[in-house]
Description:
By secondary structure, the chain is of the alpha+beta class. It folds into three domains: about 210 residues, no CATH class; about 90 residues, no CATH class; about 100 residues, S-adenosyl-L-methionine-dependent methyltransferases (Single Sheet), CATH 2.20.130. Helices cover about 15% and strands about 25% of the residues. The protein is built from seven helices and 24 strands. Strands 17, 20, 22, 23 and 24 form a five-stranded antiparallel sheet that branches. Helix 1 packs across helix 4. The longest helix has 17 residues. It is globular, with a radius of gyration of 21 Å. The two termini are about 25 Å apart. The structure holds zinc ion. The site of zinc ion (ZN) has 4 residues, from helix 4.
Amino acid sequence: MSHLNRRPRAAFAALLVLALAAPAAVFANANIVIVNLDAGTGQGLDDPTPAAPIGGNPGTTLGQQRLNAFQVAANIWGSFVNSSVPILVDATFTPLTCNATSAVLGAAGTQTVHANFPGAPKFNTWFAQAEANSITGSDLDPTTSDLIAFFNSDIDNNNNCLNNTNWYLGFDSNPPGNDIDFLTVILHEMGHGLGFASFVNESTGQLLAGRHDIWNHYLFDATTGLLWLNMNNFQRRNSAINTGNLTWSGPNVTAEAPTFSNGVNAATGFLQMYAPNPLEPGSSVSHYDTAVTPNVLMEPFITGSTIDLDITIELLTDIGWSTGGYRLSNPVPGFDQQVNTFTTRGATPGQTNYFIYGFTAGSVNVPGCPGVTVGIQDINIFSNGPADAAGEFAVPAFIPNISGATVLFQSVELSTCQVSNLVTYTWP
Ligand SMILES: [Zn+2]
């Protein structure tokens, strides 16, 4: 068992002597292409207003910085899902609902849905276009982009919107004041567009064009004991407002459920989905419950700044996405004053993995891996060991009482130069 301490101890240089020859690494890969619908309009992603580079974003205009952030988000997503078919994302800034205290930050979804395509894992079941393309290996609708994403231009343009809050366009998850981390919002919205969404009409319980969608195979009502697949419209309508009892029964999400301290349905052990009463169309069902603790990316309200896709990946895996990539699984880093299991997935069997942590964000070259960096300045190693046959490396570690501390975590597979997602967490 390892202890995780607050104080820095070891240095990253220790990794130098442990570098080995690199076997071939397995990376998840999809090419996600941003289609700039604002091009030529002088606004949004095309806004020529000069801007100083910020938080690692080298752009010199607002439009370029927004596009750069979008590309970073696309690259992050592209490293965790597999598709031989390029994923096209239509993107635009437009005024969305906003007042002094609340705002719709963005909205996104799939542009088309598909069923009964070659290789479809469920019969007569809708899938989002990007996933259907990925599964079948060809573009099922070559004339339409896969996703469309809208971002609220009033956040920057209208000072009455959230009291003069602006988008933060840095890549370091460190927005000043009340500014909103654009990268976090793009990652969230792209999740919806890739398939993190129910296609059922939540107000009526009606199926989309008479067919179930892939979510109905996993949405489970803990009160009735029924999947949405086996409900009538009336039952689905009631389930959508059955707070705390609308749950996700997929195996990959459920395997991680015990690592959450709240938001897990006691009767089933399934993670809860967002089911407020009264219904919130557009938010209900298609998010994790706000009760889920620690917070996750796919809650209906932004809870912080992150580049971590956390348990979003598990849900996409449940609905049939080919996922992969070297990553720390959620929730990292867990709870203080308890033993937590830290897990890296997507590692190479037999290869040594290093769990590192620190307190200061930065960019440090990984020894022996040209161009590869970790996002932690003051690097400490708290454990290392080989990945098992399933490509997992898990370490139990006791976290002391560190209320209020912000810690950064990452894992590194030195021999293949793989670096995981960076997880930043502040203990309550
Ligand atoms: Zn959302």
